[in-house]
Automatic annotation (TrEMBL):
<feature type="transmembrane region" description="Helical">
    <location>
        <begin position="360"/>
        <end position="377"/>
    </location>
</feature>
<feature type="transmembrane region" description="Helical">
    <location>
        <begin position="431"/>
        <end position="450"/>
    </location>
</feature>
<feature type="region of interest" description="Disordered">
    <location>
        <begin position="1"/>
        <end position="70"/>
    </location>
</feature>
<dbReference type="Pfam" id="PF07786">
    <property type="entry name" value="HGSNAT_cat"/>
</dbReference>
<feature type="transmembrane region" description="Helical">
    <location>
        <begin position="221"/>
        <end position="241"/>
    </location>
</feature>
<protein>
    <recommendedName>
        <fullName>Heparan-alpha-glucosaminide N-acetyltransferase catalytic domain-containing protein</fullName>
    </recommendedName>
</protein>
<keyword id="KW-1133">Transmembrane helix</keyword>
<feature type="transmembrane region" description="Helical">
    <location>
        <begin position="327"/>
        <end position="348"/>
    </location>
</feature>
<feature type="transmembrane region" description="Helical">
    <location>
        <begin position="177"/>
        <end position="200"/>
    </location>
</feature>
<feature type="transmembrane region" description="Helical">
    <location>
        <begin position="477"/>
        <end position="496"/>
    </location>
</feature>
<feature type="transmembrane region" description="Helical">
    <location>
        <begin position="389"/>
        <end position="410"/>
    </location>
</feature>
<keyword id="KW-0472">Membrane</keyword>
<feature type="transmembrane region" description="Helical">
    <location>
        <begin position="151"/>
        <end position="171"/>
    </location>
</feature>
<feature type="compositionally biased region" description="Basic and acidic residues">
    <location>
        <begin position="31"/>
        <end position="52"/>
    </location>
</feature>
<dbReference type="InterPro" id="IPR012429">
    <property type="entry name" value="HGSNAT_cat"/>
</dbReference>
<keyword id="KW-0812">Transmembrane</keyword>
<feature type="transmembrane region" description="Helical">
    <location>
        <begin position="74"/>
        <end position="91"/>
    </location>
</feature>
Length: 505
């Protein structure tokens, strides 16, 4: 029996057939499949393989002793995850200087708005591969639950306000003001999608009936979970009554109270949407994000789309907190994970490159077309803050197309080497997120200063090597710094990867 930990990690060990030939349904390490057989032969072969793979483990263990095989990771999956990390670093560093790539103030979609849904998409793909066979349901649940709690823990520590790295060496947070949501969206999507996959393990198909849509009907329970999330989100978004609400803004010498007039349903603007109302009721307004991106909108500042002083006649909601990763919008995000796990199911069940790409690309373009229709007809605008349905379709469709592109380059054409740095980053995504994106590594370096806290290595590099680049408007200089940072993390991830291989971790 395979180690549940390896299954949960996304490793695809396969058992030996009687002929001694290994069937690896998740191997993407440059191995090319033979697509020269006609479709009927492929279908028969696929059915025979599925029957062999689905035989009881006990019988197979009696027939031959278990052979420990070296596990293989999916290169395309790690490469795509690495791309999401690189995008996050890019928009975090350059978004302040070039607001056009920073998060959209409200409706619309920018480069930064692809980061979160790309993560959720690849979470779904990874779940499908990690849980393609569940030896024991209870053991799988015991693996998923701690991981969810781990994600929530890092979200609270890194984004809740406890860590003030890299510039402030003090730590701690006022519990009356802590931000609870952090990485709530990723944790919730991972938990829900993984539990549906685990609890329906006995309902999974052994073979697929012929037809383009057989993969959808075979995993109808996963799609039912996505539909339930869609139904809950849409009925709450358009049906929940949002009353007037107020909030306090604290200044150095005073505190001002503002009131936002609402009293309506189905509003999709910043002031009176149900997404914000649910978070204010569940978490409390003091525990929401204090610097929402809507402050860069035209209604709030003359500096649009960049950050700037508020207009004298700016609406009161421009000063209000808003949680971009709140509860109701995270329920909508379950659909992103559902689409991702579908791509993983296609990867498992279809053997030929052509069949996989036909499924992936057709669905990707279908989602993009639906998103364009919803957005440009003003039915449901693209909106990351609300995590609208059109936004789900647009970003998931884009993720599917990009994932297919990586698959063609890496697995079909065998061009793995040029993307190896992305693969290293993707294999150590959590490490780079904690140390890099949240400034923990830079905060550690800043902790070693000479005479005063400002006289440290990071500040010296910024002022003397990069010419105070963070305040510079020179495109070339800023991109040079970002390139250097990404190169540093790629090298560190590569070294860490080699050490893990050496130590057999």
């Amino acid at each position: 029996m395979e180690d549940p930990k390896k299954l949960e990690e996304g490793f695809g060990n396969q058992k030996k057939l009687n002929s001694g030939e290994e069937i690896d349904i998740t191997s993407h390490q440059g191995n090319k499949l033979d697509n020269r057989n006609d479709s009927n032969q492929d279908l028969v072969s696929h059915e025979n393989e599925q029957k062999t793979l689905d035989q009881p483990l006990q019988i197979e263990e009696e027939e031959q002793p278990p052979i420990k095989q070296k596990s293989k990771r999916v290169a395309t999956l790690d490469t795509f995850r690495g791309l999401a990390i690189v995008l996050m670093i890019l928009v975090d560093d350059a978004g302040g200087a070039y607001a056009r790539i920073d998060h959209s103030p409200w409706n619309g979609c920018t480069l930064a708005d692809f980061v979160m849904p790309f993560f959720l998409f690849i979470v779904g793909v990874a779940i499908a591969l990690a849980l393609k066979r569940v030896p024991k349901v209870s053991a799988a649940i015991r693996k998923v639950t701690p991981r969810t709690l781990k994600l929530l823990f890092w979200g609270i520590i890194l984004q809740g306000g406890y860590s003030h790295a890299p510039y402030d060496l003090a730590y701690g947070v006022d519990m009356k003001l802590i931000r609870w949501c952090g990485i709530l969206r990723i944790a919730l999507v991972y938990l829900i999608v993984a539990l549906i996959e685990i609890l329906t393990t006995k309902l999974r198909p052994t073979t697929l009936t012929p037809g383009h849509f057989s993969i959808f009907t075979a995993y109808k329970w996963q799609w039912l979970g996505g539909f339930v999330a869609f139904f809950v989100y849409m009925t709450t978004l358009y049906g929940l009554y949002v009353p007037d609400w107020n909030f306090l803004v604290h200044y150095e010498d005073r505190s001002d109270r503002y009131t936002v007039k609402c009293g309506m349903r189905g509003h999709l603007g910043p002031a009176c949407n149900a997404v914000g109302y649910v978070d204010r009721q569940v978490w409390g307004i003091n525990h929401l994000y204090k610097f929402p991106v809507w402050a860069r909108s035209k209604a709030c500042t003359l500096s649009y789309p960049a950050t700037g002083p508020l207009r004298d006649n700016a609406p009161s909601w421009c000063r209000a907190p808003f949680e971009p990763e709140g509860l109701l919008s995270s329920i909508s995000a379950i659909m992103s994970g559902t689409i991702g796990i579908h791509y993983g199911h296609v990867l498992i069940h279809f053997k030929g490159h052509g069949e996989r790409l036909k499924q992936w690309v057709s669905m990707g373009f279908g989602l993009l077309i639906l998103a364009f229709i919803l957005h440009f007809t003003d039915a449901i605008p693209l909106n990351k803050q609300l995590y609208s349905f059109s936004y789900v379709c647009f970003t998931a469709g884009a993720a599917g197309i990009v994932f297919s592109g990586f698959y063609i380059l890496i697995d079909v054409l065998g061009l793995r080497m040029p993307f190896l740095w992305l693969e290293w980053i993707g294999m150590n995504a959590m490490l780079i997120f904690v140390l890099g994106a949240q400034g923990i590594f830079a905060g550690f370096i800043n902790g070693w200063y000479f005479k005063n806290e400002d006289n440290n290595l990071v500040n010296w590099i910024q002022h003397h090597v990069f010419f105070d680049v963070w305040k510079s408007e020179r495109v070339g200089t800023l991109l040079y710094v970002i390139f250097a940072e990404i190169t540093f993390w790629a090298i560190l991830a590569g070294i860490f990867h080699r050490l893990c291989i050496y130590w057999k971790l």
